[in-house]
Amino acid sequence: MRHQIVIIGGGPSGLLLAQLLLKQGIDAVVLERQTRAHVLGRIRAGVLEMGFVDQMREAGVADRMEREGLLHDGTILSYNDREVRIDFRKHAGRPVTIYGQTEVTRDLYEARDATGGTTYFEVADVTLHGMEGDTPYVTFRHDGQDKRIDCDFIAGCDGFHGVSRKSIPDSVRKDYERVYPFGWLGVLSETPPVNNELIYASSDRGFALCSMRNMNLSRYYVQCSAEDRVENWSDARFWEELRRRIPPDAAERIVTGPSIEKSIAPLRSFVTEPMRFGRLFLCGDAAHIVPPTGAKGLNSAASDVYYLFQGLKAFYADGETDGLDSYSQKALDRVWKVERFSWWMTSLLHRFPDQSAFDQKMQEAEIAFLSESEAAQEALARNYVGLPY
Ligand code: FAD
Ligand code: DHB
Fold first, then answer.
1. pLDDT per residue as tens digits for the range 162-204
2. Residue 110: in which H helix or E strand, if any?
3. How far apart, in Å, are the Cα atoms of 254 and each of 5, 220, 354?
4. Which position among 296, 306, 327, 330 bears the catalytic label?
5. How many CB atoms lie within 10 A of CB 93?
6. Which of 262, 298, 306, 339 to mutate to test the pocket of ligand 1 (most atoms within 8 A of CB)?
7. Is 174 an active-site residue?
8. 217 and 188 in contact (C-beta within 8 Å)?
């Protein structure tokens, strides 16, 4: 078999890239390890930057997002009894869109059904070959058969645990990592959100986040220990802990209900360099991970897709390779700034197990400065709504 591009991974980055390419008449096949139902069942991100929405529009997949997505003009940060509202429109000129990653992925799969394009689900033993030459190919098992696809380029969109990054030799690759000593326990519930904007709350008991998917679907998180298990958290214990960490007026009006999903995510900062090896290009979580505090995971996957798509488009239009040659550097320049912001938000709002009284004073002073300084609010707002591509 032959396709112009092999995309490894049918998550949001792989699907968005496939859809953008298809609209340009560039043929990409997608290889996904899981079933489609499994990919669609994963509850993850919920805050989209305008750049993400613009790309969905360019891919012709934004109609439902524009109808159902909620525009948020700001967010609340609370630290013990102090509250600061960050006004996105005032300080950064644009809102963010609340629309779940599950919905993004569903829209992209439905668009792929409608427009065509081959997707193999439940593939195994995906192996990348010949990336350093001009004739790369990918082998895998599907439906009990060995398959081989020859291509011009391979896009590694297979997430943090994928095979693409590991296919770059250790002698070429450098990984940078910080693992945080806590996780996030997340609950989805069919209840109205406690507030019309997100609340990022830091208290002596740890961090909590009040988010949403729509006006009858709430998403809440509490910081938990890295070793904690979902089984330790009954719904009642979760709601009680959340109430104790958020501002008192929110705690009073929160509507609780049965959880329809509950999971624990570890927190990690990770970047691999470079993001290109010969004819392999890494995109999204395959190349970098952020702790979720700034809502940047999915959004930084989308900026990689943007740079790679521009490079591929120019290559297929007139053989121009500058975009592909500068892909890794352009993507990494933005990734590192997003890493910095996510690390900063995480450091500011979580209680660390080894935190000293001095460390806590630093957090308090940072929040005090933020509440008094329009410049500091602007810096936060600009990062949160998304740095330019
Ligand atoms: P993924 O979504 O990981 O997609 C990669 C795909 O590749 C998967 O479908 C996987 O099955 C497939 N794959 C893996 N290995 C192979 C292989 N060998 N062969 C073929 N296919 C393969 N971000 C936020 O902004 N906010 C959040 O609240 C948030 N919560 C998260 C919670 C969890 C538990 C996790 C893991 C991530 C969360 N993120 C969050 C991050 C965000 O979801 C990711 O940044 C985003 O999914 C990245 O998209 P991606 O397509 O690059 O990778
Ligand atoms: C959500 C997750 C985040 O990490 C974040 O910063 C904001 C919202 C969410 O799942 O809704």
1. 999 999 999 999 999 999 999 999 999 999 999 999 999 999 9
2. helix 101-115
3. 48, 11, 31
4. 296
5. 11
6. 298
7. no
8. yes
